[in-house]
Amino acid sequence: MRHATLKKLLVCAPLALLLTGCSANWGWYVVDPSTPSGLSNLKFMASGAYNTILMSLTAILISVVVGLMVALPGLSERRALKSFNRVYVEIVRSVPILVLILWVYYGLPTLSGITLNVFWAGVLALALSDSAFQAEIFRAGIQSIGKGQYEAAQSISLSYRDTMRYVILPQAIRRILPALGNQLVYMLKMSSLVSVIGMQELTRKANELVVTEYRPLEIYTILVLEYLVLILLVSSGVRWLERKMQASEN
Hints:
With 250 residues, the chain is mostly helical. The chain has a single domain (48-249), classed as MetI-like fold (Orthogonal Bundle). The chain is built from ten helices and no strands. The chain has helices at 2-22, 36-46, 49-74, 79-94, 97-112, 118-143, 147-155, 160-190, 202-213, 216-249. It is flat.
């Protein structure tokens, strides 16, 4: 017991000395809510949360729809449809999301003549990148449903569309809900990359504040906490939805 306590002290002592030694260089006053300037800085940083949440939710909704549309051809018996699924998934998954954001914002207008503002450029890039992963999630979820469900639907003369809508997809969504929740968390984190094209979201606000206050440690620590709170809230919401859907099955 004494040996374990001694080991903890040996580990914690250097950390305590390090923190004590560095404390003179810290400037937490820049994010101190008890001061007018600190409160103003915190409000400035928090103002980016709206764009982060709105952009992430919009992108995830689009990616779910596109992902489902890409997943269904992958379940077809036709080789051409399966090839479309594989080509789309492999190409989109191979492009780094930061590169895709830059290409959509700077390259797409030149190629198509369509001008996008930073919000929709970010949404489109995030949705395209995530749609490939959503397609694989949906494909795996649909394939996990037993053939008996298809046969039962055919026995009551349901069309393919109605079979998917009323029988297969509701069951598949219950199974893939944790994966969908993970993708929403992923989307919230990846939305920070849209700051490179000037989107006024959480990371961009923090970067602008660092330029004016010259306190990156303190400001980026608050940024970490902001993302932590957002992701914990999303994770809690997904778990609540899982429990609710499981309760409805019983």
